[in-house]
Amino acid sequence: MKSEKEKMLNGELFLPHDPELAAERMQAKLLLEEYNSISVREKERSNQLLQEIVGTMGEEARISPPFWCDYGYNIHLGAQFFANVNCVMLDEAPITFGDGVMLGPGVHIYTVNHPMEEAARATLHEYGSPVTIGHNVWIGGGAIINPGIRIEDGAVIASGAVVTKDVSARTLVGGNPARLIRHLDH
Ligand SMILES: CC(=O)SCCNC(=O)CCNC(=O)[C@H](O)C(C)(C)COP(=O)(O)OP(=O)(O)OC[C@H]1O[C@@H](n2cnc3c(N)ncnc32)[C@H](O)[C@@H]1OP(=O)(O)O
User: Fold this and answer.
1) Which residues of the chain are under the pLDDT cut of 70?
2) Mind listing the GO molecular function terms for this protein (predicted)?
3) Is 76 a catalytic residue?
4) C-alpha to C-alpha distance for 90 and 185, rounded to whole angstroms
5) Do 51 and 71 form a contact (C-beta atoms < 8 A)?
6) What is the rounded distance in angstroms from the CA atom of residue 112 to the CA atom of residue 67?
7) Residue 186: what pLDDT?
8) What does the alpha-carbon distance between residue 168 and residue 102 come to, in Å, rounded to a whole number?
9) Active site residue: 17, 76, 108, 114, which one?
10) Is 0.90 exceeded by the ipTM?
11) Whose Cα sits closest to atom 30 in ligand 1?
12) What is the pLDDT of residues 146-186, one digit of tens each?
């Protein structure tokens, strides 16, 4: 029989209050608590902690605290990744960034959904869908990226956008729900 963690990683319905998953979220919270309270002078310790929190990270990846996520190990940061303050990543499924990605303040990236059907939702099951963000994407402050979204290379997400559909390479999208504003090809 599959564990709840295996179901989570497989994108199937799973129970988050399972003891193994609850312990992993607690471990992530403890690391984040330390990460979010560390002095700005302690760059090395801060970098070490970020390496412990996320699954993988490229050269010079940085996240300005405070930062929150559920598990951490499902997050993969490319080189020169930068997230401004108050970033939230609900990483029940992989969240993968290419190189040179920038996030403005307060960007939220969600991979988790609850069932739409009331009786199924009442069982407290949930399920994850991966979010994939290409190289050199800029996501403006306050944007929300929904589960299962793919944002291709060079795209720009305007501040405050709610991204509900995949975003093509080198396009600017904005609004709620986010719509094409213009192409960025030169
Ligand atoms: C690490 C960090 O990133 S920290 C910095 C954080 N900074 C931010 O988050 C700022 C993000 N910047 C934006 O959202 C800007 O508005 C940009 C980048 C989208 C502006 O891009 P521009 O190409 O200059 O767009 P411009 O101002 O010409 O507007 C084009 C159209 O998009 C609309 N638009 C611009 N910004 C937004 C927005 N945030 N949401 C919805 N629509 C928008 C404009 O109203 C305009 O619409 P119209 O053609 O109907 O008049």
Assistant:
1) 186
2) acetyltransferase activity; O-acyltransferase activity
3) no
4) 32
5) no
6) 18
7) 67
8) 17
9) 114
10) yes
11) 181
12) 999 999 999 999 999 999 999 999 999 999 999 999 999 86
Distance 158 CA to ligand 1 centre (A): 5
Residue 149's CB: how many other CB atoms inside 10 A? 21
Is there a contact between 92 and 73 (Cβ–Cβ < 8 Å)? Answer: no
Domains in the chain, please, with CATH?
A: 4-183 (2.160.10.10)
| Ligand 1 neighbourhood includes 104 CB (under 6 angstroms) | yes
Q: Are 144 and 127 in contact (CB under 8 A)?
A: no
Contact between 23 and 4 under an 8 Å Cβ cutoff? The reply is no
Lookup: tokens for 76: 């993969």
Residue type, 26: M
What pLDDT was estimated at residue 86? 98
Q: Which residue has the tokens 């295996």?
A: 6
Instruction: Give the chain as a 3 state SS string.
Output: CCCHHHHHHCCCCECCCCHHHHHHHHHHHHHHHHHHHCCCCCHHHHHHHHHHHCCEECCCCEECCCEEECCCCCEEECCCCEECCCEEEECCCCEEECCCCEECCCCEEECEECCCCHHHHHCCCEEECCEEECCCCEECCCCEECCCCEECCCCEECCCCEECCCECCCEEEECCCCEEEEECCC
